[in-house]
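Sequence in, structure out. Go.
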Amino acid sequence: MNEIDALIKIFPKLMQGSGITLLIAVVALLVGAILGLLLALGRLSKNWFIDKLCFVYIWLFRGTPLMLQLLFVYYILPKLFPTFTFDQMLSAYIAFSLNSAAYLAEIIRAAIQSIDKGQMEASKALGMSYAQAMRKIIIPQSYRRLIPPVGNEFIMLLKDTALVTAIALPDLMKITNGQVSATGSTFMFIPAAIIYLLMTTVFTFFFERLEKKYSVYE
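Output:
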């Protein structure tokens, strides 16, 4: 009964922590999608320097742990740029967005390359430039193929936000750990797991519905 009372007491904080968890994941996905698109186009560029520059970025962020990237942003960047303030939330936004961009870049590049090359040739035959063809023809056709892997990336981001406990950001996992330490009861891990499951289930359903909506046009 004491554990139930403790859960009721801590529930508002768990909801607050869940909000931070969700916010980091959403911002990381949105910013990562924009950067990822630019990186994907860079990888597809015929310019050797741009292609290799984007490759190095993707290689760097996919080849190092997200935890290390988060700690680098939080502890090292303030020393490199002392005029800027890198608080816990901003550091989480930056680290997760940059990491997400690297993975989304490869997802977007693969989706674009999966579109029949004849589409580009037909677009050029109609007098479109490369940029116009990408914007109006190729990229819109890749949406349907992007949805499943982007959905998986978002679910991964949602779960990976638990890493922000390393910089003492009060997300769902940090609050749960604090309550476990304070009460000595591991019971609090159960409601935290349920909340994570609820969030991932809701977004899994959302992306599945989105996929079905766009599959109508194929």
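Check: The mean pLDDT is 91. The chain has eight helices and no strands.
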